[in-house]
Amino acid sequence: DPLLSCDIVGSGDTYCLRINQDTLITVGTLEYVLAYRKEFFGNRGIVVPQDIDLEWRNKQAPLWSLDDLTNKSTNLMGWWKFDELNLSLSDGNSITTVTDSGPNGLTLTAVNTIAWDADGLNNRGTAVLTGADDYFTSPDVAALDFDTNDISFYMVWKPSLGSAGHTEFWLLYKKEDGANFPLWEWKRKHHSARGSTTRKMQFQRKPGSSNFTIEGNDGAISDGVGYIHSVNSSLSDDTVDFYKNGADDGTPGSTALTGDADNTGVLYVGNRSAGNRSMSGSLAELIIVEHATGTVDVRTKIEGYLAHKWGLTGSLPADHSYKTDPPRRSSVYTG
Protein backbone atom coordinates (compact mmCIF):
# COMPACT_ATOMS: atom_id res chain seq x y z
CA ASP A 1 0.00 0.00 0.00
CA PRO A 2 1.19 3.58 -0.58
CA LEU A 3 2.67 5.24 2.48
CA LEU A 4 0.95 8.62 2.33
CA SER A 5 1.14 9.75 5.94
CA CYS A 6 2.49 8.76 9.34
CA ASP A 7 1.37 10.46 12.55
CA ILE A 8 2.06 10.09 16.25
CA VAL A 9 -0.89 11.18 18.37
CA GLY A 10 -1.75 10.92 22.06
CA SER A 11 -0.71 12.13 25.50
CA GLY A 12 0.00 10.87 29.02
CA ASP A 13 0.32 7.08 28.97
CA THR A 14 -1.40 6.44 25.62
CA TYR A 15 0.24 7.08 22.24
CA CYS A 16 -0.67 5.80 18.78
CA LEU A 17 1.32 5.43 15.59
CA ARG A 18 -1.01 5.96 12.62
CA ILE A 19 -0.25 4.98 9.02
CA ASN A 20 -2.55 6.58 6.46
CA GLN A 21 -4.83 7.57 9.36
CA ASP A 22 -5.16 3.94 10.53
CA THR A 23 -3.72 3.01 13.93
CA LEU A 24 -0.75 0.66 13.66
CA ILE A 25 0.22 0.40 17.34
CA THR A 26 -0.96 1.81 20.67
CA VAL A 27 1.53 1.93 23.58
CA GLY A 28 2.16 3.77 26.81
CA THR A 29 5.22 5.90 26.03
CA LEU A 30 6.16 8.35 23.32
CA GLU A 31 9.74 7.04 23.37
CA TYR A 32 8.57 3.56 22.33
CA VAL A 33 6.52 4.94 19.44
CA LEU A 34 9.46 7.04 18.22
CA ALA A 35 11.75 4.01 18.33
CA TYR A 36 9.17 1.90 16.47
CA ARG A 37 8.77 4.55 13.78
CA LYS A 38 12.54 4.85 13.41
CA GLU A 39 12.86 1.11 12.76
CA PHE A 40 9.77 1.11 10.52
CA PHE A 41 11.15 3.89 8.32
CA GLY A 42 14.73 2.68 8.39
CA ASN A 43 13.88 -0.85 7.27
CA ARG A 44 12.14 0.59 4.22
CA GLY A 45 14.86 3.02 3.19
CA ILE A 46 12.80 6.06 4.22
CA VAL A 47 14.47 9.08 5.77
CA VAL A 48 13.45 9.06 9.43
CA PRO A 49 11.85 12.28 10.72
CA GLN A 50 13.32 13.99 13.75
CA ASP A 51 11.77 13.08 17.09
CA ILE A 52 10.14 16.50 17.30
CA ASP A 53 8.41 15.96 13.92
CA LEU A 54 5.36 13.91 14.83
CA GLU A 55 3.76 14.18 11.35
CA TRP A 56 5.14 12.86 8.06
CA ARG A 57 3.64 13.17 4.58
CA ASN A 58 4.72 11.43 1.41
CA LYS A 59 5.85 14.72 -0.13
CA GLN A 60 8.64 14.80 2.44
CA ALA A 61 10.15 11.66 0.93
CA PRO A 62 13.40 11.98 -1.09
CA LEU A 63 13.06 12.37 -4.85
CA TRP A 64 13.30 9.22 -6.95
CA SER A 65 16.08 8.92 -9.52
CA LEU A 66 17.83 6.20 -11.51
CA ASP A 67 19.79 5.39 -8.35
CA ASP A 68 16.55 3.81 -7.12
CA LEU A 69 15.94 1.70 -10.21
CA THR A 70 15.16 -1.92 -9.37
CA ASN A 71 18.22 -4.10 -10.05
CA LYS A 72 20.23 -1.01 -10.90
CA SER A 73 23.50 -2.94 -10.93
CA THR A 74 22.39 -5.03 -13.89
CA ASN A 75 19.67 -2.96 -15.56
CA LEU A 76 21.19 0.52 -15.72
CA MET A 77 23.65 0.32 -18.60
CA GLY A 78 24.56 4.00 -18.87
CA TRP A 79 23.51 7.32 -17.35
CA TRP A 80 25.19 10.53 -18.46
CA LYS A 81 24.17 13.85 -16.87
CA PHE A 82 25.69 16.70 -18.86
CA ASP A 83 24.62 19.34 -16.37
CA GLU A 84 27.07 17.92 -13.83
CA LEU A 85 29.97 19.03 -15.98
CA ASN A 86 29.59 22.28 -14.03
CA LEU A 87 31.89 20.67 -11.47
CA SER A 88 34.81 20.91 -13.89
CA LEU A 89 33.86 23.24 -16.75
CA SER A 90 32.88 26.86 -17.28
CA ASP A 91 30.48 28.14 -19.90
CA GLY A 92 31.90 27.70 -23.40
CA ASN A 93 34.65 25.27 -22.40
CA SER A 94 35.27 22.27 -24.61
CA ILE A 95 34.15 18.91 -23.25
CA THR A 96 36.75 16.16 -23.08
CA THR A 97 34.93 13.35 -21.27
CA VAL A 98 31.59 12.75 -19.55
CA THR A 99 31.41 10.44 -16.54
CA ASP A 100 28.79 7.70 -16.31
CA SER A 101 26.59 8.04 -13.21
CA GLY A 102 25.53 4.41 -13.51
CA PRO A 103 27.21 1.32 -12.03
CA ASN A 104 29.32 0.51 -15.11
CA GLY A 105 31.41 3.69 -15.08
CA LEU A 106 31.39 4.04 -18.88
CA THR A 107 33.08 7.25 -19.95
CA LEU A 108 31.92 9.15 -23.04
CA THR A 109 34.82 10.71 -24.94
CA ALA A 110 34.23 13.80 -27.07
CA VAL A 111 35.39 13.67 -30.70
CA ASN A 112 36.15 17.06 -32.27
CA THR A 113 34.94 20.22 -30.57
CA ILE A 114 31.88 19.95 -28.33
CA ALA A 115 31.20 23.00 -26.16
CA TRP A 116 29.49 23.03 -22.79
CA ASP A 117 26.66 25.54 -22.41
CA ALA A 118 26.14 26.41 -18.73
CA ASP A 119 22.55 27.51 -19.44
CA GLY A 120 21.75 25.09 -22.22
CA LEU A 121 18.28 24.14 -20.99
CA ASN A 122 16.32 25.85 -18.24
CA ASN A 123 19.35 26.98 -16.23
CA ARG A 124 21.19 23.68 -16.48
CA GLY A 125 24.23 22.78 -18.54
CA THR A 126 24.21 20.83 -21.81
CA ALA A 127 26.61 19.56 -24.44
CA VAL A 128 26.23 21.44 -27.73
CA LEU A 129 26.50 19.22 -30.81
CA THR A 130 25.92 21.43 -33.82
CA GLY A 131 28.94 20.72 -36.01
CA ALA A 132 28.67 18.06 -38.69
CA ASP A 133 31.54 16.02 -37.29
CA ASP A 134 31.11 16.16 -33.50
CA TYR A 135 30.04 13.22 -31.33
CA PHE A 136 30.84 11.13 -28.25
CA THR A 137 32.02 7.53 -28.15
CA SER A 138 32.10 4.75 -25.58
CA PRO A 139 34.40 1.80 -26.31
CA ASP A 140 33.46 -1.78 -27.08
CA VAL A 141 32.83 -3.22 -23.62
CA ALA A 142 30.68 -6.09 -22.38
CA ALA A 143 28.66 -3.75 -20.15
CA LEU A 144 27.06 -2.22 -23.26
CA ASP A 145 26.14 -5.52 -24.89
CA PHE A 146 22.36 -5.93 -24.87
CA ASP A 147 22.42 -9.41 -26.40
CA THR A 148 18.76 -10.23 -27.11
CA ASN A 149 17.19 -8.38 -24.18
CA ASP A 150 14.77 -5.47 -24.12
CA ILE A 151 16.49 -2.11 -24.42
CA SER A 152 15.27 1.40 -23.72
CA PHE A 153 16.82 4.79 -24.34
CA TYR A 154 15.79 8.12 -22.77
CA MET A 155 17.16 11.44 -23.92
CA VAL A 156 16.56 15.05 -22.90
CA TRP A 157 17.66 17.39 -25.66
CA LYS A 158 17.02 20.72 -27.32
CA PRO A 159 17.06 20.58 -31.15
CA SER A 160 18.92 23.14 -33.20
CA LEU A 161 18.37 21.77 -36.68
CA GLY A 162 18.54 25.16 -38.36
CA SER A 163 19.36 24.89 -42.05
CA ALA A 164 21.18 21.57 -41.86
CA GLY A 165 21.66 20.15 -45.33
CA HIS A 166 21.13 16.51 -44.36
CA THR A 167 17.87 14.80 -43.52
CA GLU A 168 19.04 12.27 -40.92
CA PHE A 169 20.07 13.27 -37.41
CA TRP A 170 21.65 10.44 -35.41
CA LEU A 171 21.04 10.25 -31.67
CA LEU A 172 22.56 6.85 -30.83
CA TYR A 173 24.44 4.43 -33.04
CA LYS A 174 26.27 1.18 -32.28
CA LYS A 175 28.60 -0.44 -34.76
CA GLU A 176 31.17 -3.20 -34.81
CA ASP A 177 34.59 -2.24 -36.14
CA GLY A 178 34.87 -3.05 -39.83
CA ALA A 179 31.14 -3.69 -40.28
CA ASN A 180 29.23 -2.03 -43.11
CA PHE A 181 26.13 -1.39 -41.04
CA PRO A 182 25.37 -0.62 -37.41
CA LEU A 183 23.98 -3.16 -34.98
CA TRP A 184 21.25 -0.64 -34.21
CA GLU A 185 20.61 3.07 -34.52
CA TRP A 186 18.18 5.67 -33.18
CA LYS A 187 17.76 8.82 -35.23
CA ARG A 188 15.39 11.48 -36.51
CA LYS A 189 14.52 11.10 -40.16
CA HIS A 190 13.08 13.77 -42.46
CA HIS A 191 11.11 12.61 -45.50
CA SER A 192 10.24 15.05 -48.28
CA ALA A 193 7.64 14.20 -50.91
CA ARG A 194 4.98 16.07 -52.86
CA GLY A 195 5.95 19.38 -51.37
CA SER A 196 5.68 18.32 -47.72
CA THR A 197 8.10 17.03 -45.10
CA THR A 198 7.50 14.52 -42.33
CA ARG A 199 9.85 14.32 -39.36
CA LYS A 200 9.81 11.02 -37.51
CA MET A 201 11.87 9.24 -34.91
CA GLN A 202 13.32 6.06 -36.36
CA PHE A 203 14.85 2.92 -34.86
CA GLN A 204 16.73 0.35 -36.93
CA ARG A 205 18.45 -2.96 -36.31
CA LYS A 206 20.59 -4.35 -39.08
CA PRO A 207 22.56 -7.47 -38.09
CA GLY A 208 21.91 -10.70 -39.94
CA SER A 209 18.81 -11.48 -41.95
CA SER A 210 16.29 -9.88 -39.59
CA ASN A 211 16.95 -6.25 -40.44
CA PHE A 212 14.10 -3.81 -39.93
CA THR A 213 13.26 -0.12 -39.75
CA ILE A 214 10.54 1.19 -37.44
CA GLU A 215 9.30 4.79 -37.39
CA GLY A 216 7.24 6.74 -34.89
CA ASN A 217 4.59 9.34 -35.58
CA ASP A 218 5.15 12.50 -37.57
CA GLY A 219 5.46 15.06 -34.80
CA ALA A 220 6.42 18.71 -34.62
CA ILE A 221 9.84 19.32 -33.08
CA SER A 222 10.88 22.95 -32.80
CA ASP A 223 14.34 24.44 -32.51
CA GLY A 224 15.20 25.82 -29.09
CA VAL A 225 12.60 23.73 -27.21
CA GLY A 226 13.45 20.99 -24.72
CA TYR A 227 12.08 17.46 -25.26
CA ILE A 228 12.10 14.09 -23.55
CA HIS A 229 12.32 11.40 -26.21
CA SER A 230 12.50 7.67 -25.59
CA VAL A 231 12.31 4.39 -27.45
CA ASN A 232 11.73 0.89 -26.10
CA SER A 233 12.57 -2.22 -28.11
CA SER A 234 10.71 -5.10 -26.46
CA LEU A 235 11.31 -8.72 -27.31
CA SER A 236 8.46 -9.77 -25.06
CA ASP A 237 5.84 -8.59 -27.55
CA ASP A 238 7.97 -7.79 -30.63
CA THR A 239 7.29 -4.06 -30.63
CA VAL A 240 9.20 -0.82 -30.74
CA ASP A 241 7.48 1.96 -28.80
CA PHE A 242 8.30 5.64 -29.20
CA TYR A 243 7.45 8.33 -26.63
CA LYS A 244 7.73 12.12 -26.66
CA ASN A 245 7.32 14.09 -23.43
CA GLY A 246 5.60 11.15 -21.76
CA ALA A 247 3.04 10.56 -24.51
CA ASP A 248 2.87 7.84 -27.17
CA ASP A 249 4.76 8.86 -30.27
CA GLY A 250 4.10 5.74 -32.30
CA THR A 251 3.80 2.05 -31.39
CA PRO A 252 4.40 0.03 -34.55
CA GLY A 253 4.77 -3.73 -34.25
CA SER A 254 7.47 -5.94 -35.71
CA THR A 255 8.15 -9.64 -36.08
CA ALA A 256 11.89 -9.21 -36.55
CA LEU A 257 13.17 -8.42 -33.07
CA THR A 258 14.15 -11.90 -31.94
CA GLY A 259 17.60 -13.07 -32.91
CA ASP A 260 19.10 -9.60 -33.21
CA ALA A 261 21.96 -10.14 -30.76
CA ASP A 262 24.04 -7.14 -29.72
CA ASN A 263 27.24 -8.49 -28.18
CA THR A 264 29.94 -6.19 -29.54
CA GLY A 265 30.51 -2.75 -31.01
CA VAL A 266 31.36 0.88 -30.18
CA LEU A 267 28.63 3.25 -29.03
CA TYR A 268 28.35 6.61 -30.81
CA VAL A 269 26.31 9.40 -29.22
CA GLY A 270 25.06 12.36 -31.25
CA ASN A 271 26.24 11.11 -34.64
CA ARG A 272 26.99 8.02 -36.69
CA SER A 273 30.44 6.48 -37.00
CA ALA A 274 31.26 8.43 -40.16
CA GLY A 275 30.84 11.63 -38.15
CA ASN A 276 28.84 13.47 -40.80
CA ARG A 277 25.26 13.44 -39.51
CA SER A 278 25.20 15.32 -36.21
CA MET A 279 22.11 15.22 -34.02
CA SER A 280 22.18 19.03 -34.26
CA GLY A 281 21.16 20.07 -30.79
CA SER A 282 22.00 20.34 -27.13
CA LEU A 283 22.24 17.09 -25.16
CA ALA A 284 21.12 17.35 -21.54
CA GLU A 285 20.79 13.81 -20.17
CA LEU A 286 21.02 10.31 -21.63
CA ILE A 287 19.86 7.04 -20.04
CA ILE A 288 20.23 3.49 -21.37
CA VAL A 289 18.52 0.64 -19.56
CA GLU A 290 18.38 -3.06 -20.30
CA HIS A 291 15.29 -4.77 -18.96
CA ALA A 292 11.54 -4.91 -19.51
CA THR A 293 10.89 -1.20 -19.14
CA GLY A 294 7.57 -1.49 -20.90
CA THR A 295 5.88 -1.34 -17.50
CA VAL A 296 4.10 1.95 -17.15
CA ASP A 297 5.38 2.47 -13.61
CA VAL A 298 9.08 2.42 -14.51
CA ARG A 299 8.73 4.45 -17.68
CA THR A 300 6.60 7.16 -16.10
CA LYS A 301 8.97 7.42 -13.14
CA ILE A 302 11.91 8.03 -15.47
CA GLU A 303 9.86 10.58 -17.43
CA GLY A 304 8.77 12.27 -14.20
CA TYR A 305 12.31 12.41 -12.89
CA LEU A 306 13.57 13.97 -16.13
CA ALA A 307 10.65 16.40 -16.53
CA HIS A 308 10.91 17.85 -13.03
CA LYS A 309 14.69 18.06 -13.14
CA TRP A 310 14.83 19.80 -16.52
CA GLY A 311 11.79 22.05 -16.14
CA LEU A 312 9.70 20.21 -18.73
CA THR A 313 6.62 19.31 -16.67
CA GLY A 314 4.50 21.63 -18.78
CA SER A 315 5.05 19.28 -21.73
CA LEU A 316 3.84 16.15 -19.93
CA PRO A 317 0.27 14.99 -20.67
CA ALA A 318 -2.35 16.27 -18.24
CA ASP A 319 -2.98 12.75 -16.94
CA HIS A 320 0.69 11.82 -16.47
CA SER A 321 1.34 10.29 -13.04
CA TYR A 322 4.04 12.87 -12.28
CA LYS A 323 2.64 15.93 -13.99
CA THR A 324 2.36 17.85 -10.71
CA ASP A 325 4.63 16.08 -8.26
CA PRO A 326 7.91 14.30 -9.00
CA PRO A 327 8.36 10.61 -8.22
CA ARG A 328 9.64 10.02 -4.70
CA ARG A 329 11.80 7.22 -3.47
CA SER A 330 10.00 6.43 -0.25
CA SER A 331 6.34 7.00 -1.00
CA VAL A 332 5.72 3.26 -1.30
CA TYR A 333 6.62 0.49 1.11
CA THR A 334 6.07 -3.26 1.24
CA GLY A 335 4.75 -5.10 4.26
Textual characterization of the structure:
9% of the residues lie in helices and 37% in strands. The chain is mainly β. Strands 5, 8, 9, 11, 16, 17, 18 and 20 form an eight-stranded antiparallel β-sheet that branches. An eight-stranded antiparallel β-sheet has the order 6-7-10-19-12-13-14-15, with no helix packed on it.
Count of alpha and pi helical runs? 3
SSE order in H/E notation?
EEEHEHEEEEEEEEEEEEEEEEH
Q: Can you tell me the residue ranges where pLDDT is under 50 for at least 5 consecutive residues? A: none
The biggest sheet amounts to: 8 strands, antiparallel
The percent of residues in helical segments reads under 10%
- How large is the radius of gyration? 23 Å
Shape: elongated
Secondary structure elements and pairings:
Blueprint: E1 5-11, E2 14-19, E3 22-27, H1 30-42, E4 55-57, H2 72-75, E5 76-81, E6 97-98, E7 108-111, E8 115-121, E9 124-129, E10 135-138, E11 151-159, E12 168-175, E13 184-193, E14 196-205, E15 212-218, E16 227-234, E17 239-244, E18 247-248, E19 266-269, E20 281-289, H3 296-309
Antiparallel strand pairs: 1-2, 1-4, 2-3, 5-20, 6-7, 7-10, 8-9, 9-20, 10-19, 11-16, 11-20, 12-13, 12-19, 13-14, 14-15, 16-17, 17-18
Give me some keywords for this one:
3 helices; 335 residues; mainly beta; 20 strands; 37% strand; single chain; eight-stranded antiparallel β-sheet
